[in-house]
Amino acid sequence: ERILQKEKVNPLKMINQEISDFASKTEQEIDKLKKMESFRREFMANVSHELKTPIFATQGYILTLLDGAMDDEKVRQKFLKKAAKSLSQLNHLVEDLLTLSKIESGQIKMDFEVFDIQDLMVDAYEQLEHKASKKDITIHLDLPDNESLEVNADYNRLMQVMLNLVTNAIKYNHEGHNVTIQLKEKEDRVKVSIIDDGMGIPEEDQGRIFERFYRVEKSRTKKQGGSGLGLAIVKHILSEHNSYMSLTSKLGEGSTFSFELEKHREE
Ligand code: ADP
């Protein structure tokens, strides 16, 4: 009887406990929803701002043309080209936004296949060599001498990663400088690095540049006309490959962006 007495629970106390547990859980849920809502609001504000920039620019060029600039053939050409460039920037931004939202909502499935990662490096090099040479930048390809280094990955998505990283290495670099696409073998993994001797990234910004729309010193990079979404896309694609980006950078000296992939093993 004594034992039973001891084990007897007080139902009122139990209910009280449950109510207070429920209340604290509800509070946590509400906090989470509030955070998500403010995140969404901030995102929408960013998107609207980014969309407005090229729209206003295009509008400005067209209004100037209508205002009389159209009569001069040279000026007409110049303003039409600028308007076209702004529209292409807008297009780029919308494409990046769609890609990001599709990846985040799981709508894009990675298309894994086995291929030689060295082919991807050469492909990226060939696609961007011309762009680099316009700025008198040399791209170096530093590959190991292996016959083949196979990975199981999504070729096209990894190509997008390479193009984003190498384009940045060119964009945030000085005329006449260098970009290296390097591949290293590491036991059961390969390590890809994109190395530049350009502007570098201040330490306080290094942790944040993978966030959507985050840019170092807005005024400086605005001139470069990017979407601010490139590295966010890179981060997502790599995470779908169980990989992540690592960054070392020094302001004024350059940056190295690296990621690793597992080598493909024959079953
Ligand atoms: P953006 O479209 O602005 O290039 P990204 O997401 O690709 O957007 O990059 C975010 C920011 O990180 C850039 O605006 C730039 O300030 C910085 N950044 C990226 N790559 C480099 C690099 N190789 N060297 C210096 N800064 C870089």
From TrEMBL:
GO MF term (any one): ATP binding
EC annotation from Swiss-Prot or TrEMBL: 2.7.13.3
Source organism, top-level taxon: Bacteria
Keyword terms, alphabetized: ATP-binding, Kinase, Membrane, Nucleotide-binding, Phosphoprotein, Transferase, Transmembrane, Transmembrane helix, Two-component regulatory system
Record has Phosphoprotein as a keyword: yes
Catalytically driven reaction(s): ATP + protein L-histidine = ADP + protein N-phospho-L-histidine
Histidine kinase domain location: 46-265
Keyword Chaperone: no
Name of this chain's protein: histidine kinase
